[in-house]
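Worked Example 4.2. Read the sequence first, then its C-alpha cells.
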Amino acid sequence: MKVLEAQEITKIFPGVVALDAVDISFNRGEIHCIVGENGAGKSTLIKCLTGVYEPEQGKIQINGISVSKNRKMFDRVAYVPQEIDLFEHMTVAENLFIPFNRAGIHGVINQKELRQKAIPILERFNIDVEPETAVKDIPVSQRQLLQIARATAFEGYDVLMLDEPTTSLTTTDSEKLFNIVKQLKDEGKAIIFISHKLDEVFEIGDRITVFCNGKKVADASINDVDIPWVVTQMTGRSLNEKEVFFSQKVEDEVLLKVEHLTGDGFEDISFELKKGEILGFAGLVGAGRSELMQGVFGFRNVYSGKITYKGKKWKIGDTNYSVNHGMFYLTEERRSQGILANLSVRENASINALRQVRNGMMISRKKERTLAKEVVASYGIKTPSLEKEIKFLSGGNQQKVIIGRSMCCNPNILIFDEPTKGIDIGAKVEIYFLMKCLAEQGIGIILISSEMDEVMKCSNRIICLYKGRVAGTLDNNENKEEILGAILGLNVADREEK
C-alpha cells in the first residue's frame, strides 16, 4: 500500500535541473533504497519530500492527501539527516524529545519525567548512556543512534527517511540499527534508506531506485539485481571489481620512520613509509588509527618514541612544523574540519597558498582565481563557478579541492583519513586514481580507511591496528580473512599453524 507518492516532480535551480519529472512511491512495510552519485538529485528529492523545497512542477501525496492542500501532512515523514544535528550542551533526554510539545510536555520541563520517557527508547536503540548525560560527552556513534531515535520518538509518523545513517556507526552499531529498521518495517512503516554503501543496500533493502543527473533511471526489486547492475545504472560504466590502485613506483628510500611511538590512543607503534608508497592502516573504530596519525602530524599528544624524515629528526607535537616540512593531514571530518564551508571554492582552493596569492600585505583576487582555476582544471572539480560556496559541492568535489590545495604546497607526505567517507562509488574511483597518481609522483601516502576493499585496492602494504597496537603488517596480496583476523586481534601465526 502506497503511503508516500511523488509524481512528475521537477525542481530547477539557476542553470541546473536538479530533478527532472521524477515519479516515485513508497509502500508500507517496505525498505526502499535510493542510490546515485553525488549530485544525482537524491538530496533535492529528500527536501521536496520533507517540505523544505517547493517543486516547480508535480504533486506529492501522503496517505492519499495532497501536501499542497495540507502541509501538516509532512509531519507524517520522520527525517534523519546525514550530518549529526543535535544540541550538544543539552542532555540526551532533552535532545530526544525536542520539541517538547510533541512529546506532550508543556510548561516547566520535569527532568524526572523526561528520564522515565527516555529510558525505554534508549534501551530499544541500544544507546548505553544515562539520559542526564550531555550530548557533547557521548561518542559520535551514540549521537548518530540518538538522532535516529529522536526521529522515531513521536507517534504519528508513517515514513522514516534515513540519509547515510551508518556513516558514523561502528559495524556493531550498524547491525543494531538494521535490526531496529527491520522492526519498524514489520510495524508497517515505510523506510527510505539512502546510502553509498551498496553492501548495506543489498543487506537491508527490499526495493532500489537509482538516480542519475536529476532523473530516476532505474527501479527494481533488490532480489532481481546485483551490485554491478547498480553501478552501471549510476555511472553508465561497468564495475571492474578486480581493478587496483596501489602505486607501481615504490622506491627503496624511506621517507618517514616511526619508532616505538606512544601517545593518546596508541602504544609502541613502529612503521616505515617509503617514497612513492601507499601505506594502508586498517582497524576497527577505536583501534587508534586516526589517533596515531594525529600524533605523527603533531595534533595529538605523544609521550615517547621517535620520528625521522629522510633520516633526520622530526619535531613532534608541532603541526606548523609538519605543514612547513611538507606533511598534510586530510581529516575524516571533511565538512566540519576540512573545508571552510561558507567560503567560496576560490578561497578554499587557495587558503594553503596565501604566500603565493598575496600582493604585499593584501590577498590578490586575481592570483587567487588563477590558482583556483588550475586546481579545478587539474583535479576535475565540478563547480558552477569559482565563487560558489564550497558547502554546495558534492563530497567528492570537496575532497578534490582539499587535495588540490594541499598539492599547491608541494607536499612530501599526505595522510588521508577516511578519504571517501560519504562519497559515491564513482567519485571514490576518482579519489583512488588521484592517490595512485600522487604516489607515483614520489609522494608518500598514508591511507586510513574502515572499508576493507578500499584498503586492499589502494595499499602497497597494510598495517593492522588493534586496541592501539600493531596487530600485523601484511602485503596487499594477502586475502581478506588474514586482514580481518589481524584487526580483530587474532594471532595470524597461530591461525596458520592450525
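Now turn to a second chain, presented in exactly the same format:
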Amino acid sequence: MAPERPSPGPPPLGAAPGGQPRYARVLLKLSGEALATAAGGGIDHQMLARVAAELKEVVALGVQLTVVIGAGNLLRGSEYQARGMDRTTADHMGMLATVINALALQDALERCAATTRVMSAINIQAVCEPYIRRRAIRHLEKGRVVIFAAGTGNPYFTTDSAASLRALEVGAQILLKASHHVDGVYDRDPMLDHAAQRFDHLTYLDILSRNLKVMDSTAISMCRDNNLPVLVFNLRKGGNIKRAVMGEQIGTLVSES
C-alpha cells in the first residue's frame, strides 16, 4: 500500500511535537550561486558535498524531498540576452545549464547513499528522466530525492517560477528558498546597507507591493494564489535545511497571514 500523501495546504507553524518534522513533503530551491566556487563560477565540490549530506539527513527523517536548482554559477540567460542574444535561445541555454548542476547534485547525493532521480522539463533521456508529475510523486513515495531540472521547459520563466510550479504540482507543503548571501528578507540590500532590517514574516502582498527581491513576481503570485508558504533562509549556516523542515523559526516566512 502506498504511503499516505501529505494533506494539501500548510500545516500549523512552529516545531512539531516529539521531535518530528513539521513538513512531510517539501521543495527546496537552490540557486546555482550557492554551489559556486570562491571565484564565482563553476562548482565548489566541498559545498556540494555539504549540501548533499544535509539533504540526506533530512530524508532520513522521513521527509519527502524535491529540489529545483538554478544555474547562475554556470550561465545566466539574462546576461547573454543583454549582449544581444535572442531571449528564447539564451533561456534554453540556461535551462540546459541547470541540468549540469542537477547531475552534479545527484552524484553528490548518491555518494551519501541517497537514492535520487533527476527529472528534466526538456527531454534528455540519455542522462535523466523526462518530468512526469505522477512519476515524480511515486519517486517521492518511495523515499527518493527528486531533482527537477531545466526550469519549466519554457523561456521567459525563471527557476523561481519553476520551483513554485513544481511545489504545487507535487503537493509540497512549503517552498524552502535557500539563500547563499542573506539569512532572510530585508527592507533593503544588507550587503550594501548594514542598517537594513530583516523581517521575520511578510505576506505575499508585502513582497509584491514593496518590490522586495525574494522571488520574481510570477513565482510569488503563484504561491499567493495557492496559499503555498515560502521560507527564505541562509544556506551557508550548517544545519539550516533541517531546522527549516523541523519548523524552527529561522529566516523570513512569507505566507498569507
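Notes for the reader: The CA atoms of residues 96 and 150 lie 6 Å apart. The first helix runs from residue 45 to 60.
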